[in-house]
Amino acid sequence: MTATSIGPKHEVKDLSLAPKGKQRIEWAGREMPVLRQIRDRFAQE
Description:
Shape: elongated
Order of helices and strands: HH
Number of strands: 0
């Protein structure tokens, strides 16, 4: 017997917080050059 899930297909508790999270990620990309370099490096791979 297999278990099935009827709930949502995501693991995020509150999707309404997504815009704020995106703003924080963009801020980190601007203000933390090392994070930007890491992101760019992995985007190439």
